[in-house]
Design brief:
CATH superfamily of the largest domain: NadA-like
CATH architecture of the largest domain: 3-Layer(aba) Sandwich
Helix content: 40-55%
Strand content: 15-25%
Shape: globular
Bound molecules: 1,3-dihydroxyacetonephosphate
Order of helices and strands: HEHEHEHEHEHEHEHEHEHEHEHEHHE
């Protein structure tokens, strides 16, 4: 009990110090939906990958503290060459983004010279620079459809998202990459079946990074922002959520009359959880860790991101909060 009280006091104290520092440094704190509960509490903006990219373009703050993983902060830096973009923990990476190399991508491009490359936002700046258009889980289908005159598309690096896009865009051939999210692939069809046996009326909502057997068992497939929006507008009361567990904080806060179930306790992304209040405080105090991209790569990667933002238009209201 005593320990809980002091932990709570410690966090509240840090939150007020962060709020003060944020004013002083004219910073904005942008937070992904998978972050720790207490980090979501100090956010100016929370959202999915697409909403956060759109928010990064709109902010007039001088400093962006990006609580997410490296590729997200890197995208914010590419879109905001004049701002200081900080990632509180420099080791917060994305194993999926590391599953593709420039050399191998160039080899596949050489094999299919007429096929444009659609890269998932979970990629490094160098891969974005080598691609034609970017996408996130919320717009991947529309992005691929937007390539109207192309019959064949190279989709990197998430094979599960790529397969999902293929199922929605059957008139194109999607060349897949062998990448995957080590957290989302932990969900198995059997996990869904077991929770569904206990809660037969629950709706199954899955992130498209889950494998296709799980997606086939799901009622809705969408991004984290899409899940927030869908559940808020739904009359249903029980939901099985196949995505990283950090999303539960907002889902529970926004929907006190609804119940949420995780198909497996293993849905925790260790990288997303690296950012803590202490590290956010450190980041603001010492303006660390600066995320920057060499100019020539940033220029080409920005084109890839801009093309996506142009096709995607404005963020949908509830996918993003705090702007
Ligand atoms: P969203 O775009 O749905 O927020 O997903 C981000 C992500 O990195 C999933 O692993």
């Amino acid at each position: 009990m005593l320990r809980m009280d002091s932990d709570k006091r410690y966090k509240e104290d840090l939150k007020s110090k962060i709020a003060k520092l944020k004013e002083e440094k004219k910073a904005v704190i942008i937070v992904h939906n998978y972050q720790r509960d207490e980090v979501q509490d100090i956010a100016d903006i929370t959202g999915d990958s697409l909403a956060l990219s759109q928010a990064a373009v709109k902010t007039d703050a001088k400093v962006i503290v990006f609580c997410g993983v490296h590729f997200m902060a890197e995208s914010a830096a590419i879109l905001n060459p004049d701002k200081l973009v900080l990632l509180p923990v420099k080791e917060a990476g994305c194993p999926l983004a590391d599953m593709i190399t420039l050399e191998k991508l160039r080899a596949v491009k050489g094999k299919y010279p007429d096929a444009p490359v659609v890269c998932y936002v979970n990629t490094t700046a160098a891969i974005k620079a080598e691609s034609d258009i970017c996408c996130t889980s919320s717009n991947a289908v529309n992005i691929v459809r937007s390539l109207e005159d192309k019959k064949r598309v190279i989709f990197v690096p998430d094979k599960n998202l790529g397969k999902y896009v293929q199922s929605k865009v059957p008139d194109k051939e999607i060349i897949l990459w062998e990448g995957f999210c080590p957290t989302h692939i932990k969900v198995q069809e059997e996990h869904i079946r077991k929770v569904k046996d206990l809660h037969p009326n629950a709706l199954v909502i899955a992130h498209p990074e889950c494998n296709s057997e799980v997606l086939d068992k799901s009622d809705v497939v969408t991004s984290t922002g899409g899940m927030i929006k869908y559940i808020k507008n739904s009359d249903r009361k029980k939901f099985i959520i196949a995505t990283e567990s950090g999303l539960f904080y907002k889902l529970k806060k926004d929907n006190i009359d609804k119940e949420f179930f995780l198909p497996t306790e293993q849905l925790i992304c260790p990288n997303m959880k690296l950012n803590t209040l202490g590290w956010v405080y450190h980041s603001l105090e010492f303006l660390e860790y600066k995320v920057s991209v060499p100019q020539d790569i940033a220029k080409r990667a920005k084109l890839t991101l801009d093309r996506m933002l142009e096709v995607s238009g404005e963020p949908s209201g509830s996918a993003i909060s705090g702007v």
